[in-house]
């Protein structure tokens, strides 16, 4: 039972990935991963590995991967924010019903400062949107 391997493999790293071309057409029939580039998702930079020149197919696959990765990271960002709203609600419930005086003393000032900072940013951004609209 054999599975067809993809032509490219993207090893995720912070801010991007290392791109490999997969090769199984060799004498040992082993999977060989030939590094072809390093990409930076934040600035869109693609650096060919060594003296390599990327083919149009390489460039197209890298561009497709970068677009898909940006979409995935954007989805994760908003999902994290939705989770943060849930955590705020759970924290409120905890503070109201379960927290001891010592626990509240430990976290109250930090929570209040973080919430004040968040509120300030949200109010300013909301005002900016209302002015623009």
Mean pLDDT: 93
- H and E order: EEEEHH
Overall shape:
elongated
The radius of gyration computed from the alpha-carbon positions, rounded to a whole number of angstroms, is 24 Å
Report the portion of residues in β strands.
Answer: 15-25%
What is the count of DSSP helices, taking H or I runs of 4+ residues?
A: 2
Count all strands and give the number: 4
Distance between the termini: 59 Å
* Low-confidence residue ranges: none
Structural class: alpha+beta
By oligomeric state, this entry counts as single chain
What percent of residues adopt helix (DSSP H or I)? 55-70%
Strand order of the largest sheet: 1-2-3-4
Report on the biggest sheet.
Answer: 4 strands, antiparallel
Account of the protein in words:
The protein is built from two helices and four strands. By secondary structure, it is α+β, with helices and mostly antiparallel strands. It has a four-stranded antiparallel sheet with strand order 1-2-3-4, with helices on one face. Strand 2 and strand 3 form a beta hairpin. It is elongated.
């Amino acid at each position: 039972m054999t599975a067809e391997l993809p032509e490219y493999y993207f090893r995720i790293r912070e801010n991007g990935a290392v791109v490999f071309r997969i090769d199984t057409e060799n004498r040992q029939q082993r999977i060989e991963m030939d590094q072809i580039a390093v990409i930076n998702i934040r600035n869109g930079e693609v650096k060919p590995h060594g003296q390599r020149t990327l083919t149009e197919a390489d460039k197209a696959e890298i561009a497709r991967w970068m677009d898909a990765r940006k979409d995935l990271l954007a989805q994760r960002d908003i999902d994290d924010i939705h989770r943060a709203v849930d955590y705020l609600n759970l924290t409120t419930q905890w503070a109201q019903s379960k927290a001891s005086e010592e626990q509240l003393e430990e976290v109250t000032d930090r929570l209040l400062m973080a919430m004040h900072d968040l509120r300030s940013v949200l109010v300013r951004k909301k005002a900016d949107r209302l002015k623009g609209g």
